[in-house]
Design brief:
Layout lengths: L1 E6 L7 H11 L3 E6 L9 H8 L13 H8 L1 H8 L2 E7 L1 H9 L5 H8 L3 E6 L3 H5 L1 H12 L3 E2 L3 E4 L5 E5 L3 H12 L9 E6 L4 E2 L5 E2 L6 H12 L3 E6 L11 E4 L3 H12 L4 E4 L6 E2 L20 E2 L3 H7 L5 E8 L3 H11 L4 E6 L11 E8 L4 E8 H25 L1
Helix pairs in contact: 1-2, 1-9, 4-6, 5-8, 10-14
Bound molecules: cytidine-5'-triphosphate.
The site of cytidine-5'-triphosphate has 15 residues, from helix 12 and strand 16.
Length: 407
């Protein structure tokens, strides 16, 4: 792989030289980019000597107008020419810049222009690492698909003990190396994914909805795209950025979700219905806001179309995956839904446990297949759970293809 290694300004910057060596030993070509602050800790010459390439240090060259012009677009060229961007040490400042899309130096600009894999190895004082601002930035970056190589616990340069020490360079190199063997087992598939909640209006200002954040569905969409599938994402209202390079259709109500799904159904070979669709809606929505006149309010609701059940009726050889978010009798409910909605697979999780499920970055699921098998995944990051779900889908797809070939 062609790896750009971004070196941030932290005491751990000297360990990046070891990371360069480890990456080279694995057969990767390395281009180093240093921030201004990194130069306070280690000389560019060290990296230039190790890589045999000029280290990139700034957005603009100070040499000549011609060089300035070519260096001004260098971040785009570097972004296009490399397969992975690794940043070690990723300082609190760099994480904040990446999370918020600031682009005021070469490395942050490169991050924005980069569409390949991103691996971040943070290193900083333990209080800075544990600060909610840093943790929120890390969660945001993780949700966007960046791999985070967590810092280790130990003695820190500032004298305190705790998490914050840069992970072992060999471990970081292994994490980067793994990207190169990214599975491409969904090549040729078109995956239609629904995610998030739906909102069913009651009047012009109110609606019925649920706590789904869409994080699980978005993680599956991004993982499926990484594995080579063409992905169409139909999303209810969520607070997540539309994934890059994925056709995303924003909808609000169950009716709109059904319409978008049906329009894209023909081209789909795999359908994953992770959305938490509202079960009821108000068929007659008043044009004006409801006024607080009654002492008790009853609202009549009608059932929404069950999109999954409808697809199940005429799915042909498409692989259909449903979801079930439950508060009790997980497996029985999941099995009942899988059978009644004619799914090939159903992913079930509890939504009444702290730290997993709705709104969380983590999840723990049971993956039921028609054959009767149940695979367990988690508790883990939703990105990891997404990969496990896709592993199961890819395996089932293969066995169905093999069965077709035998018939
Ligand atoms: N689903 C759907 N359309 C609906 C309701 C649900 O497509 N109107 C899909 C969901 O996307 C999910 C699966 O059906 O993949 C199960 O959703 P869930 O709400 O758990 O199922 P329900 O049949 O509505 O059962 P419950 O009574 O538990 O709400």
């Amino acid at each position: 792989m062609r790896v750009v290694l971004g070196v941030g300004g932290g005491i751990a910057a000297y360990k990046s030289a070891e990371l360069v060596r480890a990456l080279q030993q694995q057969g990767h070509a390395v281009q180093v980019v240093m921030t201004q602050a990194a130069r306070q800790f280690i000389q560019p010459l060290t990296f230039a000597a190790l890589t045999g390439r000029k280290v990139i240090e700034g957005l603009f060259s100070e040499a000549s107008p011609e060089e300035t012009l070519s260096s001004a677009v260098e971040h785009i060229a570097v972004a296009q020419e490399h397969d992975a961007l690794a940043v070690a040490p990723a300082t609190a400042d760099l994480l904040a810049k990446f999370a918020h899309g600031l682009a005021d130096d070469f490395l942050s600009t490169l991050y924005l222009a980069f569409t390949g894999h991103v691996v971040l190895a943070p290193a900083m004082n333990n209080a800075m690492w544990e600060h909610p601002a840093t943790q929120e930035n890390v969660a945001k970056l993780r949700a966007r698909g960046c791999r985070i190589v967590e810092p280790e616990e130990g003695w820190l340069a500032c004298g305190s003990i705790g998490p914050g020490r840069l992970a072992n360079p060999v471990a970081i190199a292994q994490e980067i190396d793994l990207l190169g063997i990214q599975k491409k087992d969904l090549e040729g598939e078109t995956v239609l994914i629904t995610a998030g909640p739906t909102q069913e209006p009651l009047d012009p200002v109110r609606y019925v909805s649920n706590r789904s954040s869409g994080k699980m569905g978005y993680a599956i969409a991004e993982a499926a795209a990484r594995r080579g599938a063409k992905v169409v994402l139909v999303s209810g209202p969520v607070n997540l950025a539309a994934p890059r390079n994925i056709e995303t259709i924003q909808v609000r109500t169950a009716q709109e979700m059904r319409k978008a799904v049906m329009e894209h159904l023909k081209q789909a070979t795999i359908i994953i219905k992770s959305a938490a669709v509202a079960d009821y809606y108000a068929s007659e929505v008043p044009k004006q806001k409801l006024k607080k006149t009654a002492t008790r309010l009853s609202i009549e609701l009608d059932p929404t179309p069950d999109i999954l059940a409808e697809i199940g009726q005429s799915k042909g050889d498409r692989l259909l995956v449903g979801f079930a978010a439950e508060t009790q009798n997980l497996i029985e409910e999941a099995r009942r839904k899988m059978n009644s909605k004619k799914c090939d697979m159903l992913v079930a999780n509890y939504v009444n446990q702290d730290g997993i499920g709705f709104e969380s970055d983590r999840n723990e699921v049971e993956i039921l297949s028609r054959s009767g098998e149940i695979a367990h995944a988690g508790p883990a990051d939703k990105i990891e759970i997404a990969e496990k779900i896709l592993d199961q889908i890819a395996t089932l797809r293969l066995s169905l293809h093999a069965a077709d070939a035998r018939a």
